[in-house]
Amino acid sequence: MTSHNCVPSPAKKAKTTTSWRSWKGELEANNGKRFGLQDLLPGFTLRLEHRQGGTLATHRGEERILLYRSDKKGAIAKIIYSSEIQEQPSLQSSVAELQKNIAQAKIHVLDVKSQYRGRDLGGLLFSEAITHLKSKYCNNDDNEDDDFNTNEPLKSDYEQKQLYDVNCSLEAEEDVTRHGKLIAFYLRLGCHVVSKRVQYISDNDFAYRKVPMQVTLKAATTAARKRKRSSLMSKASFLPVQLVGDAGKITVTPSGGSEAGMKFDWLINQADDGVQFSTTHGNFLIASPSGSVTILDQVDDSYSDVDGWATFVPLHISDEIDHDDSPLQQSSSRSLWVLRSCHGTFLTADSVSKCFSCTKLPSFWQANGSNLSLACTSDTPPRRHHYLQCWKLQTHEYVQSMRSRFLNFSLGKATLFEALGWIHTFPAYPFHAWSCEDNNGSSMVSSPSLRTLSFLMAEAAREEGLPDWVQLVALFHELGETVKKLDPNNTGKMADSIYDWTISTRSRVVGCAIPNCATFSEFRHLNTDVLDARYSTDTGVYEPNCGLDNVLLLWSGPEYMYHLLRHNQTALPLEALAMVRYYLLGDWHEHHEHTSITNEYDEDMLPWVSDFDRLRRKTRLECLDCVDLSDEQCEYLWDSHYSRMAAKYDCDRLFAW
């Protein structure tokens, strides 16, 4: 392709890293540091406490398990139960029962304070009580050990303690607001209804029912030794945590493989070398060397190093910049973490299967202490760094200076098809971890080019039967990045080292109050405009309902491309120009902000802009694993279809850049 008055820099693989501390380097720097539960989710932790008898006890053999917050007095949840050995069989006992050693237990109270419900803490307390009853009556703790070795001789019957079956009863008390919910809760915990005789009780205006239920615990035998449930009583600290992906709770399959993928309520526990994740029923999340992730079933003894395989080391990727003298304000709910297994792999939530897995390439998590969640995110350190710099640099004054510099279109002349050839060296996904360069300067995993993404989006518009000018805009809308080729000593150098404004990222209006929904709003404190009273109102420096055509947006590649198409007086319709400029303005077309400055014309354009953004997002998802188009394939698509459209809308000639 021959340029006209434009001398772009030689084609080479586009750099996607900057001079800031790379995420890979930071992982290596943090390798020896010990990040724990309180680093990941700062604030309070929980602990369990077991008590027997005491002055508050009202039942024979009464025990309590209490759940406490580390920063407050008083229990936030409790379970009260009692147990004793049945010394004399009842008259109703069957012959089989008379031949067994039976212990009787009863759950008297299971209560979780209302503000702590919804995390299955009740299930945790119930499971802890059952674990204690099993240890007390059903298991021979001397022989029944997690590290049990079948080659060692068993103790004699004389040396073993007497084992008992346990009949543990309770009454599920439900009012009309929880009808059926409490019964279902206990059924999930292994209980069953023992009688159809339900008591209905009315106390003035309050009515409820009592449903008798029971769970039977069997004494362990030498023929069927089971791995004991791990009690959290010995854990110094833990927290309930939501492990979520793009589609909500993440699915995991028990190690036995007998059940389909399930979703659980999770706890995060402090371990010696990191953190461990367990269900509220005591099953630990296990990472295998093959990359599969499962929960360890209580009857599974196939894992030799349970503690090691269940431990994940949290490593933090900060938002700080090397060349800044002072660290930036951190946002604990947004900054990124990785969870590394003992095999050197990284925990992730597969976006396709919605299941846990471990991969060689890092997957990033965002820890939110306010709602106690860990969310697997598509966000990456390079993307956060880009938006951080965007917030820091893109002020009203900055945008005005960039418009003055570039809107005289003095960089040279070239056709749009020539510009398409230049962007084949730019990655379609510059912020993906696998698009970043390693320490040797080579890409970790190849990424499709921006040219390929542009042609595929145009083809997607064609397949949907959208107007030909929409197809043309889909093909040309990313060409603003070519400024790095046309202005290598200034724009190109800045893109490589500090901030690449040509990349298409979410935009916003400058010169007025910034909406709370703005992308990466946690960095807004870095922008000096937020301290300027002129820009603090909904209209700011603009007239009410002046229309988006009369406001300033962030200076970006699409913003430059919009002005380039207008300056070169193409025959594209106004809807096409609106799509190029506003598809990144999600504050407007997604969240319906800026109603004080938009007008009726903007409302007419909104459906076109919104649909164009939908098409772009869809294509980007489908292009993730696609093969890069060759020069010959791109030229064929251009010659056979898009060249005629370019001629129709006067886009096939030399443009001033």
What's the story with the biggest beta sheet? 8 strands, mixed
Low-confidence stretches: 9-21, 142-158, 322-332, 436-445
Number of strands: 25
First-residue to last-residue Cα separation: 17 Å
What is the typical, i.e. mean, pLDDT? 84
Query: Which structural category do the helix and sheet elements fall into?
Result: alpha+beta
- Helix share bin: 25-40%
**What is the rounded Rg?**
32 Å
Treating each run of at least 4 consecutive H or I residues as one helix, how many helices?
18
What's the shape?
elongated
The total tally of domains equals 3
How much of the polypeptide forms β-strand, as a percent range?
15-25%
Short description:
The protein has about 650 residues and is of the alpha+beta class. It contains 18 helices and 25 strands.
Describe this structure in words.
With 657 residues, this protein is an alpha+beta fold. The protein is built from 18 helices and 25 strands. Strands 1, 2, 3, 4, 5, 6, 7 and 8 form an eight-stranded mixed beta sheet that branches. A hairpin with a 2-residue loop joins strand 9 (238-245) and strand 10. The protein is elongated, with a radius of gyration of 32 Å. Residues 9-21, 142-158, 322-332 and 436-445 have low confidence and may be disordered. This is Inositol oxygenase.
Keywords:
metal-binding; EC 1.13.99.1; seven-stranded mixed barrel; 657 residues; Inositol_oxygenase; Inositol oxygenase; eight-stranded mixed beta sheet; inositol oxygenase activity
